[in-house]
Amino acid sequence: MNLIASADRNWAIGLNNKLLIRIPEDMKFFQKTTTGKVVVMGRKTLESLPGGQPLKNRTNIVLTSNRGFQVKGAKAVHSMEELLEELGQYRSEDIYIIGGESVYRELLGLCDVAHITKLEYEYEADAWFPNLEKEKDWELTGSSEEQTYFDLEYYFLKYERKKKS
């Protein structure tokens, strides 16, 4: 499975259930990478999407403890067991975890690839992605050239779980 996120220097990912910044090229990368795939998110992440609606042209799965939660165009699951059972019908490489913080933390151990748009700035935040630089099982395996959005520098990074030898 894959993780995909945009994070600042401190691995912050959001404030008040919103992204720290919307960078058009990052949005295009996210759309291109996840279209036709399975996206897994928490309820608050779904609510933060445009119109609070599932993403088009993707299989949307929402992990929520609210057993009454339903949304048209998405499958709601209410436990890790239920989520893993649902995900069993898809190819692991076609699954993208898209947030938020608690969902990233719960599923990090099951993922092999993380696509991180790394922002060279420190934002005020209340949600963070696990710091992959401090995770001994993960290594940086790819980096784009420096990108800029106005005066913000950022990079498209790829981390992979180290292979067991």
Protein described:
The chain is of the alpha/beta class and 165 residues long. It has one domain (2-161): Dihydrofolate Reductase, subunit A, CATH 3.40.430. Helix content is 19%, strand content 36%. It is built from 4 helices and 12 strands; from the N terminus they run E-E-E-H-E-H-E-E-H-E-H-E-E-E-E-E. The chain has helices at residues 24-34, 43-48, 80-87, 101-107, and strands at residues 2-7, 12-15, 18-19, 38-42, 59-63, 74-77, 95-99, 113-119, 127-128, 138-143, 147-149, 152-161. Strands 1, 4, 5, 6, 7, 8, 10, 11 and 12 form a 9-stranded mixed sheet that branches. Strand 2 (12-15) and strand 3 form a beta hairpin. The chain is globular and about 45 Å long. The chain starts with a strand and ends with a strand.
Element layout with pairings:
Blueprint lengths: L1 E6 L4 E4 L2 E2 L4 H11 L3 E5 H6 L10 E5 L10 E4 L2 H8 L7 E5 L1 H7 L5 E7 L7 E2 L9 E6 L3 E3 L2 E10 L4
- Overall number of domains: 1
CATH superfamily name?
Dihydrofolate Reductase, subunit A
Distance between the termini: 20 Å
Radius of gyration: 15 Å
CATH topology: Dihydrofolate Reductase, subunit A
Q: Main beta sheet: strand number and arrangement?
A: 9 strands, mixed
What portion of residues belong to β-strands?
35-45%
Low-confidence segments, ≥5 residues, pLDDT <50?
none
What is the 3D form?
Answer: globular
